Each structure stands twice: as structure tokens, then as C-alpha cells.
Automatic annotation (TrEMBL):
Keyword Hydrolase: yes
InterPro entries: AB_hydrolase_1, AB_hydrolase_fold, AB_hydrolase_sf
Native source species: Rhamnusium bicolor
Residue span(s) of domain AB hydrolase-1: 2-83
GO molecular function, one term: hydrolase activity
Superkingdom of this protein's organism: Eukaryota
Record lineage: Eukaryota, Metazoa, Ecdysozoa, Arthropoda, Hexapoda
A GO CC term assigned to this protein in UniProt: membrane
Keywords: Hydrolase
Name of the protein described by the UniProt record: AB hydrolase-1 domain-containing protein
Family: Belongs to the AB hydrolase superfamily.
């Protein structure tokens, strides 16, 4: 909203399985970061955009990284908030989880709408607030739930709009070698915003290594650290807004 108030035009996307977008059909799997590139490319082609500027938080920031690396001549700038690239997981841990993730995915796929948990509004807000363990305040939870919840039709209350299969999407993560190769292909202007209260990462030392690799050939790389949690853009948008606005219009 702060950017819109400055006259900037933004196109916001609910990826499949998120917000108000449809879920993938039964039998299809989510690959999170890679899905984002696939659908973002569809959107760009649909509107015949020749050059884009991207802003993304967390998953969205990882998708912006990938898109800028894969289509380096088609991205003018991108801003990533509290993420340097798609998540780089511990390889052994990732392999250990694969079978369990696939089985959970199939389990969720077999559930009917009647089996989905239903909540009252305040109960749902509290549930999301507790799940993020202090990363996002109550107001931020309500903002997310504007597109993250809907009235249930089979009983009184609300359902989450997200596809529950997203919770088991452990496939499609990359190794650090793949990430660094992709980072070395980014040419555009980049801004990275990081929170002081860091998200727990398997390999936290990779964050700056990835940015260092981007910086070697990118047109520009700005690094900023702001007081706050992973959801600082929701909790205190005014603190990061001036830097983002300046970067976008410069």
C-alpha cells in the first residue's frame, strides 16, 4: 500500500495453492521455488512484458533470485526480503525427509473438504500468530488472512485457503553449488533486506556467500539490515519503505 500511495503500479501474485488461486490437481506435486519461475514466466509472457522489476519476501525473494538468474536480460531490478536465494538445506537431512514428505503429500491429497479443520475468525488469527512464534504481529496475521482464509460452506467458521499439500513440499531444493552457479548469472540491480532476528537456517554462512557471488557481476547490489523479524515488512513496513521506494525509482 505504501508503494501504491506513491503512484507505483504493482502486480501481486497468488501462486497456485496460495491465497485465492486454484490448487494443483490431484496427482500433481508442488516444487515451490521452481513452480514460481514457471508461473512467473507465464505471467510475463501473457502481458508481453519485456523487462520486469520483482519484489519478494522469503519464498518470493527466492523466486525473484531464480528468475533473475535464468532470464538475466529480462529483469531490471529485484528486491529480496530476508532471503538470499532459494533455501539451501542440509543434504543428508533433506534426503532423510523425502520419503516422509511424499507419503504426507499423498495423505493430504486423500482428505475431503469435510475433513479439513474449521475455525472461528479469532481462533484462526491466534493459530497463525502462535505458529509464527513472534515473527509476525496480530495485525500482520490479519493482513495475510485476507487472502489466506475463506468462509466454510460445509459448517460454521473459516478454512485456510492454502493447499495443505504445500506443507509437505520438500522436493525441488538445491545444493549450494547449484545456487552459486545461478547467483553468478545475475546481472541486474539487486537489493537485499535482512532482519536482525534471523530465521534459523541449516547453513547460515551461505547467506553472505551467495550475496558475494551476486555482487561480482550484478550491475549493483545493496545490502540492508533492519531491526525486526522475518516478517519485518508486515510488522514495520514504514522502516524499510524509504529504501525500497528509492531503489525502485532510481
Amino acid at each position: 500500500p505504501l508503494l501504491k500511495d506513491k503512484g507505483l503500479s504493482l502486480y501481486c501474485v497468488d501462486l497456485p495453492g496460495h491465497g485465492h488461486s486454484s490448487h494443483l490437481s490431484a496427482g500433481q506435486s508442488y516444487y515451490l521455488f521452481w513452480d514460481g519461475v514457471h508461473f512467473l514466466r507465464r505471467i510475463v509472457k501473457y502481458f508481453n512484458w519485456e523487462e520486469v522489476t520483482l519484489i519478494g519476501h522469503s519464498l518470493g525473494g527466492g523466486i525473484a533470485f531464480l528468475y533473475a538468474a535464468i532470464y538475466p536480460n529480462d529483469v531490471k531490478k529485484y528486491i529480496s526480503i530476508d532471503i538470499a536465494s532459494p533455501s539451501v538445506r542440509n543434504v543428508a537431512k533433506m534426503c532423510d525427509l523425502l520419503g516422509h514428505s511424499v507419503d504426507r503429500f499423498l495423505s493430504y491429497e486423500s482428505k475431503t473438504i469435510d475433513q479439513m479443520p474449521c475455525y472461528q475468525y479469532d481462533e484462526m488469527v491466534d493459530l497463525v500468530f502462535e505458529a509464527y512464534a513472534g515473527s509476525v504481529n496480530k495485525q500482520g496475521c490479519e493482513i495475510m488472512l485476507k487472502r489466506g482464509m475463506k468462509r466454510a460452506t460445509h459448517k460454521e467458521g473459516y478454512l485456510f485457503t492454502r493447499d495443505p499439500r504445500l506443507k509437505t513440499a520438500a522436493l525441488g531444493f538445491m545444493t549450494i553449488d547449484q545456487i552459486l552457479e545461478l547467483a553468478s548469472r545475475i546481472k541486474c540491480e539487486v537489493m537485499n533486506i535482512r532482519a536482525t532476528i534471523r530465521t534459523k537456517l541449516d547453513n547460515p554462512e551461505y547467506y553472505d556467500l551467495i550475496l558475494d557471488t551476486i555482487e561480482k557481476q550484478a550491475k549493483k547490489l545493496e545490502r540492508h539490515v533492519f531491526n525486526g523479524t522475518h516478517h519485518l515488512h508486515l510488522n514495520d513496513a514504514e522502516s524499510i519503505f524509504p529504501n525500497i521506494h528509492r531503489f525502485l525509482i532510481s
